[in-house]
Amino acid sequence: MKSGFLFALLLASSACAAEFDLLITNAQIADGSGAPLVHGSIAVKSGRVVAVGQVTGSADAVIDAGGKVAAPGFIDVHTHSEDICLIPAAENFLRMGVTTIITGNCGHSRTDVGKFFEEIEESKVALNVATLIGHGSVREQGMGGSFIRAPSGEQLATMKALVDQAMKDGAVGLSTGLIYVPGSFAKTDELIALAKVAAAHDGIYVSHMRYETVRIFEALDEIIRIAREAKVRAEVSHIKLSGPTAWGKAQEVLTVLDKARAAGLKITHDQYAYTASSTGLRQTLPDAALEGEHEDFVARISDPKQKAAIIAKMAEMRARQGRKDYSYAVIARCRADSSLNGKTIPEAAKMRRGSDALDDQIEVILDIEKQGGASAIFHGMTEEDLQIFLEHPLTMVASDGGPRRFGEDVPHPRSYGNNARVLGRYVRELKLLTLPEAIRRMTSLPAQTFHLKDRGMLKAGAHADIVIFDPEKVSDPSTFSDPHHYAEGFTHVIVNGGVTIRDSAFTEMRSGGPLRMGQ
Question: What is the 3-state secondary structure (H, E, C) of 125-176?
Fold first, then answer.
């Protein structure tokens, strides 16, 4: 009698069990392929999409999309998120629909990728995190503080071993930052040797190229040579033309890349939707001034002869770019003096020295670097070039941002609004891209380019990374002067089946984790 009752109870329980963990209904579905939107539902079970279309069945939870767009979670292929374990919620990314990020860009990364992934698991991040292995970080570890030279055979072997181990641990490729010390001192042969190691593991070579100025065609020749000789897929990071002397050459740049692709090379590129970049203020200084340790820099600017040589090189750099002064640079975060945050260099010079003359601007830059440096925003591109790059079918949308603590410093707004800006300004307002095509640039194209398995598409078997947004309301209220505003219009964000944003509110769900090559 007792066993019969238990059997009946089990049957009743089985009959009542829901077919799906989550069912999204009444959605305009953009599957990530670039195909037109279709009305339907999406069913999720055990962190995977199990059905898309006219889906019926019971579910533990139901989200009525209310006719909004449901798309694959956005994949941001260019971020600087080595500190993700300190800000594991990464709410600024989630609130603009990003469910997967790739860090380790521009040559800077954690060199122990295995340990990095362990820390990501322990901190329970809210989104998926993949990484590149950074050439600059590898070079620094392999060569010590002496950079203005080629590595010895032993040092190159050490660097190759570091790249090899990182790839074995799950890195998706090798990145370079060839405007940054120590990467700026590397010769092309060194880069080819290391790219071959990444290529042996099916990795990609991702490059912040040596020049994004009027000399960009030299840099393009280099990345094309590396792709050809290392037999590696290549990616141009944050494609742009920086400085007045380079403006207007966007179509020429794309023509060079298209010709390389026609010759059989696999080269793509990514872009953020702003006409200002952001990096260290030290990029206004010549590389040779930064070689070695911080004490070496301090010694150089303390020596009148060496300081004069540095200032002369700064003048050459301004002339090449067509700049008269540093009014295009805005301090985002000054380590030694937060009162300078949000100020242009002339404004900072006026505050510190009582004058905004060019000589005083230079002295402020040198002094800031002496005191520990600063990050800055550089207004150096044109809207016309940006739009030409954005229209190209192989341009992926990527922020070049990182996880942000709300209200801290005056960072570039791209970390809060990049994807929303594309959808609001360039799709809805300017109609530069169709909505399905813009979504493809944020989803399936990045997944295919970086070989992220079962990501970037809404189809049965895919990981359940899903974003729901209103295309008529999506916007980027974050600005350069007032950046700390989350993107608007995104009502639901789902990561691996976990609802992290529900009805526009962060749920504290952290269902992300490390994303290794091939996963």
Answer: CCCEEEECEEHHHHHHHHHCCCCCCCCCHHHHHHHHHHHHHHHHCCCCEEEE
